[in-house]
Amino acid sequence: MTTTISTKPKTLGELKASGWRSRTVKEELHDNLLRMLADKKELFPGIIGYDDTVIPEVCLAMLAKHDMLFMGEKGQAKSRLMRGLIRLLDPEIPYVAGSELHDDPLRPITKDSKRLLEAEGDSTPIEWWPREQRYAERLAPGTKFADLIGEIDPAKLAGGTSMSAEDALHFGLIPRMNRGIFAMNEIPELDELVQVGLFNILEERDVQIRGYPIRFDLDVVILFSANPSTYNRSGKVIPQLKDRIGSLVRTHYPREREIGIAIMEQESSIELDGDFPVRVPLFMKEICEQITIEARKSDFVDTQSGVSARFSIANYRTMIASARRRAAILGEPHAVPRISDLGHIASSSMGKLELDMMSSHQMSEQQVIESVQVAAIKQVFDEYADQHGFEEIAEIFGKGVTIEVGDLLPSSVYADRLKRVPPAWEKAFEINPSGDPEMRAACVEFVLAGLYSHEQISRSAKHGRIHYEM
């Protein structure tokens, strides 16, 4: 039931009169999900590429009223999916005023709330808990039993509270999220004793804190995330905990490059307008995302760890930054990213790849980054070359032509140097039709880098500038 702010009940009697009914969190998610599905509303705004795979599985898990495990490699939106469930909660729910565990006024679980309801009856004060506060998450490494479940509070003992009383307890995150959602990230890294406490909560709903038996009918949805390489490793997650998780939702990287580009553009949150605006040609977006795809396929990268979407995002931002820097230094009206701008992505790539230490041929991270970049340019170039054909341009270099490019070379220089062979180079400008020098310079570099990736021309670099020749 939705209650407007102006008529929000403030006492138990008013709450009963309003017709509000008590529901568990799983019932709440179940009912609200069905309503949103019927109304054709977007369930997870900002999540791209999961409409036909992951999101249906999440929906089924919620309709089955399961706790869930999101399993996938890094950078697959596991945390975002878990946080997205907040939208499926009611805007706010009532609880007994002052209740540490946000007790349901119609189904209290703590002694304090029960005593208050017995003493005050329908006059018991009611407060409201907004859905944004009904979600909490924790990273497994370093998490202790007291953090999640609770501990005896020394301050309360010093104040005269009996150690055998519920009042002496300091509750952890999960009891405090009673009637909410709790998420545990990287569950395989959680201490075994804490895992035991979790599977008790998932199934029996009872725990013990320092020998004090607590039997709370906790109403909480528990979510987990894990990387498959660690989750499936023997001994990392105890079998009893695995057995009690209702649904396993497998995430994945974008199945198509276009989806990866859409994610990259959305998550980069970089302003392309303003001073020295940036115009990014499609082929540069394709190369930037293809670099990540090639890294995921590389024999030198640990495939079990994966390559996060953050790899593409960081490189995309660096590429745009390099282009904008050039426009500011040279005073060009706008910036267009070129292949030479990708020479700076090592700074945004380093540390994001986990190399395969078992590979028979060891390469440094810098070398791996350079190799996947060349492979990406080759892949994208081949797609364009099939359509346009650049054999005539390659033949030009057989006549002793040398072309210099660089991230700080003025766009006008490219036009001046290509005046000798305009008919052939018109082919290059069909890639991204435009008459401005900046876009034409980007097209020239793309074609040169593509020919180099096929070993049709050679390349040498000196002082930040690159020379292409036969």
Quick overview:
41% of the residues lie in helices and 14% in strands.
How does this structure look, described?
α12 (257-268) packs across α13 (282-297) and α13 (282-297) packs across α16 (365-388). The protein has helices spanning 12-18, 25-38, 54-63, 78-84, 111-120, 145-148, 154-158, 173-176, 192-203, 228-231, 239-244, 257-268, 282-297, 309-330, 346-349, 365-388, 391-396, 411-417, 422-425, 437-453; strands spanning 68-71, 92-96, 126-130, 135-139, 150-152, 169-171, 180-185, 206-209, 212-215, 220-226, 247-250, 403-406, 458-462, 465-469. The chain is elongated, with a radius of gyration of 30 Å. It has 20 helices and 14 strands. It has 470 residues and is α/β, with parallel strands linked by helices. Helix content is 41%, strand content 14%. The N and C termini lie far apart (74 Å). The protein has a five-stranded parallel β-sheet with strand order 4-7-10-1-11. Strands 12-14-13 form a three-stranded antiparallel β-sheet, covered by helices on one side. The protein has a two-stranded antiparallel ribbon with strand order 2-3. The protein has two domains: 5-250, Rossmann fold; 257-469, no CATH class. The model is unreliable at 1-5 (pLDDT under 50).
The CATH superfamily of the largest domain is identified as P-loop containing nucleotide triphosphate hydrolases
Low-pLDDT segments, ≥5 res: 1-5
Structural class: alpha/beta
Amount of beta strand: 5-15%
The radius of gyration computed from the alpha-carbon positions, rounded to a whole number of angstroms, is: 30 Å
Instruction: Write the CATH architecture name of the largest domain.
Output: 3-Layer(aba) Sandwich
Mean pLDDT: 87
Got a strand count?
14
Percent of residues in helices comes to: 40-55%
Number of DSSP helices? Answer: 20
Just give the CATH class of the largest domain.
Answer: Alpha Beta
Strand order of the largest sheet: 4-7-10-1-11
Tell me about the largest β-sheet: 5 strands, parallel
- Remind me, CATH topology of the largest domain? Rossmann fold
Intertermini distance: 74 Å
Bulk shape:
elongated
Number of domains: 2
